[in-house]
Amino acid sequence: MSQNLFTILKRPVVTERTTELRESIHQYTFEVARAANKVQIRQAVESIFGVRVVDVRTAIVRGKIKRIKRTLGKQPNWKKAFVTVHPDDQIELFEGV
């Protein structure tokens, strides 16, 4: 594998909506590397957390335009992955949130 597993998964995304998705359809959300594809994301989640991945969906999130005094700046775009795990499995990282 060209990338290290921990460089593929950057951080979990924890919001009210992702918490609701986690509880209802066992779907976890991560910020991932822009160059990572679905197969690499699946392998990273399965090996790091020891769960069975059913589906992976990805989306590019556009960076927001922010104003800093008189000038406009843009935050960088980032990639989000929605990972659906088997109903019998769960990722312990999210359980205390």
**Roughly how much helix do the residues carry, as a percent range?**
25-40%
What percentage of the residues does DSSP assign to strands (E)? 35-45%
State mean pLDDT (0 to 100 scale). Answer: 91
- Counted beta strands: 6
Characterization of this structure:
- This protein is an alpha+beta fold and 97 residues long.
- It has a single domain (5-90), classed as RRM (RNA recognition motif) domain (Alpha-Beta Plaits), CATH 3.30.70.330.
- It is 27% helix and 36% strand.
- A 4-stranded antiparallel beta sheet has the order 1-2-6-3.
- It is globular, with a radius of gyration of 15 Å.
- The termini are far apart.
Task: Sum up the structure in keywords.
single chain, about 100 residues, alpha+beta, Alpha-Beta Plaits, 4-stranded antiparallel β-sheet, two-stranded antiparallel ribbon, 6 strands, globular
At a glance:
By secondary structure, the chain is an alpha+beta fold. It has one domain (5-90): RRM (RNA recognition motif) domain (Alpha-Beta Plaits, 2-Layer Sandwich).
Summarize the SSE layout with pairings.
Blueprint: H1 5-8, E1 9-12, H2 16-25, E2 27-32, H3 38-49, E3 53-61, E4 65-68, E5 71-74, E6 78-85
